[in-house]
Design a protein that fits this description.
This protein is α/β, with parallel strands linked by helices and 386 residues long. The protein contains 13 helices and 12 strands.
């Protein structure tokens, strides 16, 4: 059975060109970057070359990039690092109710340590209210952390406006850009971003590698104690092959970004139009305009999302009911609840996230089976109520 993959927000397939770049550092070029001999120097050189490529993707200095093990580690490092470095100045943090668990759970941990966190509401499309943000700022606010684009509904926040507000009050601004990096244009300098988290496996690099951008001059406490890697901020022998893969992925993303965005936007809009044309009781979650190019999230009336996923899987279709990090939870999505959906619609959600390997023919196959499965499940449900 052919597999039709529509879950690129969860993870992406490693690009062949990226894998080829990584392979020497898994075999012949296996040296420890901290070693002084040739193998070690080669590994160190590869790391610094990758750092430059990641920096170019978001327009920062190479020395402002710190390699981590994941987007979640980057979020933890940024938020806890700023909180613990500045706790004598203030203990108030502002975030939103629709952040990734890596941000929400980090903030909840800090609350147990005496910090105070304000969780901003969002509207029906998933946007924060800039007025509420300004009203939430206190004299002891040390950090604003708002995601660049939401992993479930694809909504892109007004990042530049948030950054301007943070600058007005001399507050550090961090953004979780795990879903955005490699998929839309990001310029940390022109946008006024102080710290940014990204993850390689969201744009065709391997799992287990991420990066954190920290604007020059911003101090933060280290997250992992040990050796002196990453300018003494992230102890651990470097994942050289992963870093090389992230560097190559960044280079390719930068080169192909306009075509990538156009292609995925066309697929997304085609899918949305077909769902709304062929499936009654379908509600698009998130904004129609300011959303990620490859993201489309629908809720279907009288449908259980888990049953829908299992039936799609039987047809070789891979999609998601929400965040991959929340799979297995019986609770409705916190994102969908925050934008005002009731439990029934939140539990009947389906996220499709497209990649460059997808075609309109794939989407036609998806829609045909989605329509059949939903009709069948609704028929079963209606019989059960009789």
């Amino acid at each position: 059975m052919d597999i039709r993959y529509f879950d690129n927000a969860a993870t992406t397939k490693i690009n062949d060109e990226i894998l080829e770049e990584m392979l020497p550092f898994l075999k012949s070029e296996f040296g420890n970057p901290s070693s002084m001999y040739t193998l070690g120097r080669n590994a160190k050189r590869a790391i610094e070359d990758a750092r430059k490529k990641v920096a170019k993707l978001i327009n920062c200095k190479p020395e402002e990039i710190y390699f981590t093990g994941s987007g979640s580690e980057s979020d933890n490092t940024a938020i806890k690092g700023i909180a613990h470095k500045n706790y004598m100045r203030g203990r108030h943090i502002i975030t939103s109710k629709i952040e990734h668990p890596a941000v929400l759970h980090t903030c909840q941990t800090l609350e147990k340590q005496g910090f105070v966190v304000t969780y901003l509401d969002v509207d029906k499309d998933g946007f924060i209210d800039l007025n509420q943000l300004m009203q939430s700022i206190r004299h002891d606010t040390i950090l604003i952390t708002i995601m660049f684009a939401n992993n479930e509904i694809g909504t892109i926040q007004p990042i530049e406006e948030i950054a301007k507000i943070s600058k007005m009050y001399n507050i550090i601004f961090h953004t979780d850009a795990v879903q955005a990096c490699g998929n839309i244009h990001i310029d940390v300098k022109s946008m006024g971003i102080d710290m940014l988290s990204l993850s390689g496996h969201k744009f065709h690099a391997p799992k287990g590698i991420g990066a954190l951008y920290v604007k020059e001059g911003i101090e933060f406490t280290k997250f992992i104690d040990g050796g002196h890697q990453e300018k003494d901020k992230r102890a651990s022998t470097e994942n050289v092959a992963g870093i090389v893969g992230l560097g190559k992925a960044s280079q390719l993303a930068k080169k192909n970004l306009n075509n990538h965005m156009e292609y995925l936007s066309n697929l997304r809009d085609y899918y949305i139009s077909k769902v709304e044309e062929k499936i009654p009781g379908a509600k698009l979650n998130g904004t129609r305009q300011k959303r990620l190019p490859g993201n489309a999230n629908f809720s279907f009336e009288n449908i259980d999302g888990q049953s829908l996923l299992l039936n799609l899987d039987a047809k070789g279709i891979c999609a998601s009911s929400g965040s991959a990090c929340s799979t297995g939870s019986l609770k409705p999505s916190h994102v969908l609840k925050a934008i005002g959906l009731n439990d029934e619609l939140a539990n009947g959600a389906l996220r499709a996230s497209f990649g460059e390997e997808n075609t309109k023919e794939d989407i036609d196959y998806f829609i045909e089976n989605l329509q059949e499965i939903i009709n069948r499940l609704r028929s079963i449900n209606s019989q059960g109520l009789q």
